[in-house]
Design a protein that fits this description.
The chain is an all-beta fold. It contains no helices and 5 strands.
């Protein structure tokens, strides 16, 4: 399970925000699992928390990555 928090620290609302969660095998760098969240409007100072169950077959240790992309209004 991965719990991630994303905060809009900018000075403009984000529009069409995509948040990608990835489970990565530390040894090989291979992405083992992904999930995506879409936020139509993400206000200045707003914070969102997500809980994701990323299931992947990691031979060794895995770590989580969170990536965001957005349009600025």
């Amino acid at each position: 399970m991965v719990i991630g928090t994303v905060t809009n620290t900018g000075d403009a609302d984000g529009r069409n925000v995509v948040v990608r969660f990835r489970l990565v095998d530390e040894g090989s760098g291979v992405v083992r699992s992904t999930q995506t969240e879409f936020i139509a409007r993400f206000g200045v100072g707003e914070q969102k928390q997500f809980t994701k169950h990323l299931d992947g077959d990691c031979d060794r240790t895995c770590y989580a990555e969170i990536e965001t992309e957005w349009d600025i209004s």
